[in-house]
Design goal:
2,3-Dihydroxybiphenyl 1,2-Dioxygenase, domain 1, three-stranded antiparallel sheet, five-stranded mixed sheet, 8 strands, globular, alpha+beta
């Protein structure tokens, strides 16, 4: 894997984004807080939707809302938009929709440029 970006400022400072090839990241690693309790052993695990349609991400959001899933936040990373939510044990998970094409390294370049920063958004 290659490092595509390192998180700059903010709560994820020091995180590392890694890719197997074209993706801006396939794995992102963030250090847990010292003495982390159950549900905080890791920051979160993200799952990429097969679709690049924001409408599909909106449908996932609606699905979560209908089932009472606790949503932490929705973030726009520039390269992707993710819904961050909690499983029953308190672990944070993410489903995200890729927005910047993977081909040609565009998504890797953008993630590296913005240092993994994200802005809150709505669907």
């Amino acid at each position: 894997m290659k490092i595509t970006a390192r998180a700059g400022d903010g709560p994820y400072k020091g995180g590392v984004f890694l890719s197997f090839g074209e993706s801006d990241h396939d794995v992102a690693l963030f250090k847990a807080e010292e003495g982390a309790s159950k549900g905080k052993e890791f920051e979160h695990i993200g799952f990429q939707l097969a679709s690049t349609s924001m409408e599909d991400l909106r449908r996932n959001h609606e699905f979560f809302q209908q089932r009472g899933v606790k949503i932490a936040e929705i973030l726009d990373h520039g390269v992707s938009v993710g819904i961050y939510f909690y499983d029953p044990d308190g672990h944070m998970l993410e489903v995200f929709c890729q927005r910047v094409p993977l081909a040609g390294g565009a998504s890797q370049a953008e993630l590296n440029r913005n240092q993994g920063q994200a802005d809150p958004t709505t669907l």
